[in-house]
Amino acid sequence: MLKVGVTNFRNAWESMGPDCERIDEYDLGTRESLAEAVNAVIQLLGMQPCEARLLLLCNVNVLARISLGIDGAKEVAMKLTVRSEDENVSDAIHETVASG
Protein backbone atom coordinates (compact mmCIF):
# COMPACT_ATOMS: atom_id res chain seq x y z
CA MET A 1 0.00 0.00 0.00
CA LEU A 2 1.26 3.43 -0.92
CA LYS A 3 0.09 6.41 1.13
CA VAL A 4 -0.40 9.65 -0.78
CA GLY A 5 -1.14 13.00 0.87
CA VAL A 6 -4.64 14.43 0.61
CA THR A 7 -5.19 18.03 1.59
CA ASN A 8 -8.88 17.57 2.45
CA PHE A 9 -10.16 14.09 3.34
CA ARG A 10 -13.82 15.15 3.27
CA ASN A 11 -13.53 16.57 -0.25
CA ALA A 12 -11.65 13.47 -1.44
CA TRP A 13 -14.33 11.26 0.15
CA GLU A 14 -17.19 13.20 -1.45
CA SER A 15 -15.52 13.32 -4.86
CA MET A 16 -14.91 9.56 -4.90
CA GLY A 17 -18.65 8.96 -4.52
CA PRO A 18 -20.52 5.93 -3.25
CA ASP A 19 -20.47 3.76 -6.39
CA CYS A 20 -17.77 1.43 -5.04
CA GLU A 21 -18.52 2.00 -1.37
CA ARG A 22 -18.78 -0.98 0.98
CA ILE A 23 -20.00 -0.73 4.58
CA ASP A 24 -20.10 -3.43 7.23
CA GLU A 25 -19.90 -3.83 10.98
CA TYR A 26 -17.55 -6.17 12.81
CA ASP A 27 -17.20 -7.47 16.34
CA LEU A 28 -13.59 -7.03 17.45
CA GLY A 29 -14.10 -8.95 20.67
CA THR A 30 -13.12 -7.91 24.16
CA ARG A 31 -10.44 -5.25 24.42
CA GLU A 32 -9.14 -3.32 27.41
CA SER A 33 -9.60 0.01 25.62
CA LEU A 34 -10.41 1.66 22.32
CA ALA A 35 -6.69 2.35 21.93
CA GLU A 36 -6.04 -1.40 21.99
CA ALA A 37 -8.79 -1.89 19.37
CA VAL A 38 -7.24 0.80 17.15
CA ASN A 39 -3.87 -0.95 17.36
CA ALA A 40 -5.50 -4.27 16.41
CA VAL A 41 -7.11 -2.69 13.34
CA ILE A 42 -3.82 -1.02 12.36
CA GLN A 43 -2.03 -4.37 12.52
CA LEU A 44 -4.77 -6.15 10.60
CA LEU A 45 -5.01 -3.66 7.74
CA GLY A 46 -1.46 -2.33 7.72
CA MET A 47 -2.87 1.21 7.73
CA GLN A 48 -2.21 4.16 9.99
CA PRO A 49 -4.90 6.49 11.32
CA CYS A 50 -4.75 9.88 9.68
CA GLU A 51 -6.94 12.61 8.38
CA ALA A 52 -5.06 13.40 5.20
CA ARG A 53 -4.04 10.25 3.34
CA LEU A 54 -5.25 8.55 0.23
CA LEU A 55 -4.21 4.94 -0.03
CA LEU A 56 -3.22 3.35 -3.30
CA LEU A 57 -3.80 -0.40 -3.44
CA CYS A 58 -3.22 -2.19 -6.74
CA ASN A 59 -2.95 1.27 -8.35
CA VAL A 60 -6.49 2.06 -7.17
CA ASN A 61 -7.34 5.00 -4.90
CA VAL A 62 -8.81 3.84 -1.57
CA LEU A 63 -10.31 5.80 1.32
CA ALA A 64 -11.56 4.26 4.57
CA ARG A 65 -13.55 5.52 7.54
CA ILE A 66 -13.62 3.53 10.73
CA SER A 67 -15.88 4.10 13.74
CA LEU A 68 -15.25 2.18 16.94
CA GLY A 69 -17.41 1.76 20.02
CA ILE A 70 -16.91 -0.06 23.30
CA ASP A 71 -19.55 -1.14 25.81
CA GLY A 72 -19.43 -1.71 29.57
CA ALA A 73 -18.29 -5.31 29.08
CA LYS A 74 -15.40 -3.99 26.93
CA GLU A 75 -16.77 -5.56 23.75
CA VAL A 76 -15.64 -3.51 20.75
CA ALA A 77 -17.66 -2.98 17.58
CA MET A 78 -16.30 -1.44 14.40
CA LYS A 79 -18.10 0.10 11.46
CA LEU A 80 -15.88 0.12 8.38
CA THR A 81 -16.74 2.17 5.31
CA VAL A 82 -14.45 1.84 2.30
CA ARG A 83 -14.58 3.83 -0.92
CA SER A 84 -12.36 3.08 -3.86
CA GLU A 85 -12.29 3.31 -7.61
CA ASP A 86 -12.83 -0.46 -7.91
CA GLU A 87 -15.51 -2.42 -6.09
CA ASN A 88 -13.25 -5.49 -6.01
CA VAL A 89 -10.71 -3.55 -3.96
CA SER A 90 -13.40 -2.36 -1.54
CA ASP A 91 -14.63 -5.95 -1.21
CA ALA A 92 -11.08 -7.26 -0.68
CA ILE A 93 -10.49 -4.89 2.22
CA HIS A 94 -13.70 -6.05 3.89
CA GLU A 95 -12.79 -9.69 3.26
CA THR A 96 -9.44 -9.10 4.96
CA VAL A 97 -11.17 -7.69 8.04
CA ALA A 98 -13.81 -10.44 8.11
CA SER A 99 -11.16 -13.17 7.98
CA GLY A 100 -8.78 -11.34 10.33
From TrEMBL:
Residues 2-52, 58-97 form the Coatomer subunit gamma C-terminal domain. GO terms for biological process: endoplasmic reticulum to Golgi vesicle-mediated transport; intra-Golgi vesicle-mediated transport; intracellular protein transport; protein secretion. InterPro entries: Coatomer/calthrin_app_sub_C, Coatomer_g_Cpla, Coatomer_gsu, TBP_dom_sf. It comes from the Eukaryota. Gene3D superfamilies: TATA-Binding Protein. One of its GO terms (cellular component) is Golgi membrane. PANTHER family: COATOMER SUBUNIT GAMMA, COATOMER SUBUNIT GAMMA-2. This is Coatomer subunit gamma-2. It comes from Olea europaea subsp. europaea.
